[in-house]
Design a protein that fits this description.
alpha/beta; Metallo-beta-lactamase, Chain A; seven-stranded mixed beta sheet; 7 helices; 14 strands
Length: about 250
């Protein structure tokens, strides 16, 4: 299994519009973060988790030619608004795109992309989507997936476990029942936004406590704001924990 970080940034992205801070002005390309998403490749199929607003740019950058299914963590704009561009994969695969999510996330997809689900004039190009509600473990493109319920502030959202890899972003707490599903991980990807506490996201110290509890072999922090410089933050973290960056590839 290979994981590619399509994006590693928070909802503003980095650089952030109108900001002249050292990270936003950095010449280190690893400080240039599009909105968070990953691409998962296995021998069975290929998945995307979340379609960021830069989805088209991310896919072109990584030369991705195949997406068999999409898993959504939740329906906030930075995780959803690139969905229209999956229509290119409809043409390549000649099928509707299976989209897995909580029922309330699928409702938001139908509202945000209403034109997809109503008749439109001939010649209109729009994605073909198959919306599939998640209520327990499932297979997407033949890949077994375990949904992990987490809290994003007061919102219930999903992380996902595939084999010994888990992806959790936009979380501020993980219920005990979900922690039990995250044991014996080779790689954990965890959303950690900045050093300062945040109402709806883990900060660095909280993320370190999650890692200490779960003890994965390796951890990558993602969904990173402009408050964290890539190089200096990495130098302060334990050797088995690193900041993700756009284009990072890991193989399990």
């Amino acid at each position: 299994m290979r994981i590619t970080f399509l994006g590693s940034g928070t909802s503003h992205g980095v650089p952030m519009i109108g900001c002249d801070c050292p990270v936003c002005c950095s010449d280190n390309p690893k400080n240039n973060r599009t909105r968070s998403s990953i691409y998962v490749e296995t021998e069975t199929g290929c998945l995307v988790i979340d379609t960021a607003p830069e989805f088209r740019i991310q896919v072109l950058r990584e030369r991705i030619r195949r997406v068999d299914a999409i898993l959504f963590t939740h329906a906030h704009a930075d995780h959803l608004l690139g969905l229209d561009d999956v229509r290119s994969f409809n043409g390549i695969l000649r099928s509707a795109m299976p989209c897995y999510a909580l029922p309330e996330t699928l409702d938001a997809v139908m509202r945000a992309f209403q034109y997809v689900f109503v008749p439109t004039q001939e010649g209109t190009s729009k994605p073909a989507l198959e919306l599939i509600a998640v209520d327990g473990p499932f297979c997407a493109a033949g890949i077994p997936v375990t949904p992990i319920k987490v809290k994003h502030g007061i919102l219930d959202i999903l992380g996902y476990r595939i084999e010994n890899f888990a992806y959790i972003t936009d979380a501020s707490s993980i219920p005990d029942s979900s922690l039990a599903l995250l044991d014996n991980l080779d790689v954990l990807v965890l959303g950690v936004i900045r050093h300062q506490p945040h109402n709806t996201h883990f900060c660095v110290s909280e993320g370190l406590e999650v890692v200490k509890s779960l003890r994965p072999k390796a951890t990558y922090f993602t969904h990173i704001a402009h408050n964290l410089d890539h190089q200096s933050t990495n130098s302060s973290l334990p050797s088995n924990i690193r900041l993700a960056y756009d284009g990072l590839k890991i193989t399990l």
